[in-house]
Amino acid sequence: MSDAQTPAARPANPRFSSGPCAKPPVFSLDTLQDAALGRSHRAAIGKAKLKQAIDETREVLGVPEDYRIGIVPASDTGAFEMAMWTMLGERPVEMVAWESFGAGWVTDAVKQLMLDANVHEAEYGQIVDMAALNYDNDVCFTWNGTTSGVRVPSGDVIPADRKGLTLCDATSAAFAQDLPWDKLDVATFSWQKVLGGEAAHGMLILSPRAVERLESYTPPWPLPKIFRLTKGGKLIEGIFRGETINTPSMLAVEDYLQALAWAKSVGGLKGLIARADRNTAVVADFVARNDWIDFLAEDPAIRSNTSVCLKFTDPSIHDGAAFAKAVAKRLEAEGVAFDIGAYRDAPPGLRIWCGGTVEASDIEALMPWIDWAYRAELDAQARAA
Ligand SMILES: Cc1ncc(COP(=O)(O)O)c(C=O)c1O
């Protein structure tokens, strides 16, 4: 297929990566001028910025006043493992996974912490029946499976009077999906996901019951300093006011503050959800119009509006993995879509980030290019046969 047949329009921003995700459309390095660079994070200016990041996170996400929000090391992984290492082991745990990251938490529970764990897994594209879990145990799950494009449809089945804690990795859901705070005892995310911030720092959100667990239970294993949330059996409250355990990047903090300001400018959480839904609807229209591509998530009720995963369904494709890779490579070479190959452990296909920092006009411009790359690759396959 010749270049003459390429679509006329190109996405203005070809960044559709599922993490780090596209920065807000208004981003420029100039917006970081106010960063407290070269200053101590313990100085008044540094502390104020860290506290502002916590306060505005609460405001935008609608986190209840009696929940703690902390900025912790090591991105979402740090936040989630910190919760696992400090709270689990008090009772058995239900480990729930339907894609790669959830599977990683299962490994942590079973092979590292060696917990009394009931493991519930579903194939890529499907979800575990959340109603079938024992909520008298602790439950660890991922709200939005970034590598399968499957999300929990709602928290309705989680009982309000559960005895165990729910630990939720919400990194590709926060700021794009409604999270039922009353059903979540621990929620974690990274700045690098839906708001297009920088990696390295994780957000740890704790319900009063999670704090109660921290103050009443001491795990039998040693905890490194960066996991320690209590001192002398009491929560270290300073962490939840911005007195971080170790040194944060004040540049990343400033960047997150700018992302939050942008989030507020588009209508806060509601506006962000609407943007992600609109982006996903553009992909859904495209899928509906073409019989050679489909969502990896089988049931529309569990389809993600952030990490949208697609599979090629054309039976004439010989080698699905090679085909999908070649399509992604073609799009990258054309400069119209970066980083949209499926995750390395996921079934072959494409993954298009539809979170709120991506513009619907860019998703619209991308769709004809996917059609073009698919046809170009079919041609290449025919020529090679
Ligand atoms: C669901 C989920 N959990 C955890 C992670 C790890 O996040 P981080 O690299 O920010 O620690 C990711 C990253 O893509 C993710 O999608």
TrEMBL record:
Any coiled-coil regions, as ranges: none
Annotated stretches, region: Disordered: 1-22
Keyword Cytoplasm: yes
A GO MF label: O-phospho-L-serine:2-oxoglutarate aminotransferase activity
SUPFAM superfamilies: PLP-dependent transferases
Xref: InterPro entries: Pser_aminoTfrase (IPR022278), Pser_aminoTfrase_methanosarc (IPR006271), PyrdxlP-dep_Trfase (IPR015424), PyrdxlP-dep_Trfase_major (IPR015421), PyrdxlP-dep_Trfase_small (IPR015422)
Lineage top rank: taxon: Bacteria
Cofactor(s) named in the record: pyridoxal 5'-phosphate
Family per record: Belongs to the class-V pyridoxal-phosphate-dependent aminotransferase family. SerC subfamily.
Protein name: phosphoserine transaminase
Gene source species: Tranquillimonas alkanivorans
